[in-house]
Design a protein that fits this description.
Number of helices: 4
Number of strands: 12
CATH superfamily: Endonuclease/exonuclease/phosphatase
CATH class: Alpha Beta
Largest sheet: 6 strands, mixed
Strand order of the largest sheet: 3-4-2-1-12-11
Number of domains: 1
Radius of gyration: 17 Å
Structural class: alpha+beta
CATH architecture: 4-Layer Sandwich
Shape: globular
Helix content: 10-25%
Order of helices and strands: EHEHEEEEEHEEHEEE
CATH topology: Deoxyribonuclease I, Chain A
C-alpha cells in the first residue's frame, strides 16, 4: 500500500503600512490560528527601521514563541514549525532575483528567502521552501516589469531544479502580483501553481494573485486542497487574505 504525507502550507501577504498594533494582531493570528499549517510564508516584512514596518520584529518574536525557525530576505519570509524538522538538518539561504534599480515603480530588491530541512516523516528527504514577491506591472508582454518577471521565473525554476534533485522536494509560495487564472506564474518556465493543478482559483484580496507552486520532478507531489480565508473566516488588517494549501507527498519505500 502506498504511504503518503499531507504537507500543509499557509501564505500571508502582510501590509507594511498598517499600524504596529494592527501588524501585531495579524502576526499573532497567523501563528495561533495556523497551528495546523507548519510551513508559513509571507511578504511585506521588510526591515524599514524604527517607527516604520514592525512586521519583521513581530515575526521573529512569534517564531520564537511558537517554536518555528524563520528566515527573511528582502521583504519576504519563510517559517517552519520545529515539529516537522529533523534535528540539526535546517539550512537558511536566499536567492537574489532582481535589483530594484531595474524595476519600474516603488519597491525593494527582490530576494527569495529559503528554508531547507529534512522532514521527520519523509525518511530524511529534504524539503526546500522559498517565498517570493513578484514586482507589480509585469503580468503581460509590454508591461513595464514583464521582462523582469520572466527573468525571475527563470531563476525560480533553476533553484527548484537544484534543490529538488533525487529524493528531495522543492516548493515556492508567494505574492505573484498577477492573476493565476489567466496568467501562468511560471511565465513559460517549468513549475506549476497549486490552483492551476486543481483548477480552483480564489481571490486572495486583489484577485487570485497569492498561492503555492511545486516542482514535481519525480511524480511524488500532487495538489490536494487550496483555500483562501476571507475576513469573515480570519479577519486580518492586511489587504490580502490568508491562503492555505495541502500537498500530498508519496513516501519513498525504505
Amino acid at each position: 500500500m502506498t504511504e503518503t504525507l499531507l504537507l500543509k502550507m499557509q501564505h500571508s501577504s502582510l501590509q507594511f503600512s498598517d499600524t504596529p498594533a494592527q501588524q501585531a494582531s495579524d502576526v499573532e493570528k497567523l501563528f495561533v490560528e495556523g497551528e495546523d499549517f507548519p510551513i508559513k510564508t509571507g511578504t511585506e516584512a521588510g526591515n524599514d527601521g524604527p517607527g516604520g514596518n514592525t512586521n519583521r520584529e513581530l515575526l521573529v518574536e512569534a517564531a520564537k514563541d511558537y517554536k518555528h525557525k524563520i528566515n527573511f530576505a528582502g521583504d519576504a519570509w519563510v517559517a517552519v514549525d520545529d515539529r516537522i524538522i529533523l534535528p540539526r538538518s535546517l539550512t537558511r539561504d536566499d536567492v537574489f532575483l532582481v535589483s530594484n534599480d531595474h524595476m519600474v515603480g516603488h519597491g525593494t530588491d527582490r530576494i527569495m528567502p529559503t528554508l531547507e530541512f529534512q522532514h521527520v516523516e519523509l525518511g530524511g528527504d529534504t524539503v526546500s521552501v522559498g517565498s517570493v514577491h513578484y514586482p507589480t506591472k509585469g503580468a503581460v508582454p509590454g508591461s513595464p516589469n514583464y521582462k523582469m518577471n520572466v527573468e525571475i521565473a527563470g531563476l525560480l525554476e533553476r533553484w527548484l531544479r537544484d534543490v529538488a534533485r533525487g529524493k528531495n522536494l522543492g516548493f515556492i509560495n508567494g505574492d505573484f502580483n498577477m492573476p493565476d487564472r489567466t496568467t501562468d506564474w511560471a511565465l513559460g518556465h517549468d513549475f506549476l501553481s497549486m490552483a492551476d493543478e486543481l483548477k480552483a482559483w480564489e481571490n486572495s484580496g486583489h484577485g487570485p494573485i497569492d498561492g503555492f507552486c511545486s516542482f514535481n520532478l519525480d511524480g511524488r507531489v500532487s495538489a490536494k486542497r487550496f483555500s483562501v480565508l476571507d475576513d469573515k473566516e480570519m479577519h486580518l488588517y492586511s489587504d490580502h487574505y490568508v491562503c492555505r494549501g495541502v500537498w500530498e507527498i508519496v513516501k519513498r519505500k525504505s
